[in-house]
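CORE FACILITY INTAKE
Project code: CF-77B
Contact: R.S. (postdoc)
Sample description: multi-component assembly, two entities in total
Requested service: structural model of the whole complex
Turnaround: standard
Below are the sequence entries exactly as provided by the requester. Do not edit them.
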Amino acid sequence: MEQKVKVKLFSLYADAVGRSEVEVLLDLGGRVSELLQSLIREYPVLSKAFSLVKPIVLINGVRAPEDQLITGSIEVALVPPSAGG
Amino acid sequence: MESRKVIRAEVTLSDVSLNDVVEELISKTAGTGAGALASFIGFVKGLVNGSSVIELEYTAYEPYASRKILEIAEEESLDEDVAGVYVVHRVGRLKPGEPTIYVFVAARSREKAFEKAKRILERVKMEVPIYKLERRSDGEYWVIGDGLRIPRGKLSDLK
């Protein structure tokens, strides 16, 4: 069983893909690390973008570790380190 | 957790009237033993790495950016010597010289006011999901973290 996961993209990642939100398929019980792999499979340009700047995954606005499960009605975002100020 | 010490903490499009903020902070904290007000204003540089800056375009991931600013303001105002905190980060397109971030801290001592204003500033820069694109005379750059710049064209070339 797979789930569709909407991912909001920011900064250079949105620029690389050309969209500010994408949808990827992920196995039920998939984790953050697998989501990153799915994103790269679907949008190979992200592989280069990730090598330039290591991505951070936010779940409901909070930084998620790579082993965190992605499940339920959550909001996922792919962001670089913050650049406020 | 909700602190009455936090006068304002959020992301906004508009600039701030300094006189109004100073008046509000002083009037709300004078009776609590405060006697110092430290302020920090960040503004857009007109020159970076020898090139003229045309504008910065800030994007915030809302509502989480405003929530995080509020969380930082509330955490830092738990200090009993802090009497009032006002922190606002602007988004949108900002030209050189335009303010980008305002941090004001009223406290019982000047040391505490300066220390907390610096700490809040650094935390907002590091922890709040805000991103920026720098448009310069020599091209466009994504600013990553505290200063790394990725040329925008470099990503287009990857496709």
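Facility notes:
- Chain A touches chain B through 23 residues (CB under 8 Å).
- Residues 61 and 77 of chain A are 8 Å apart (CA to CA).
Invoice: internal transfer
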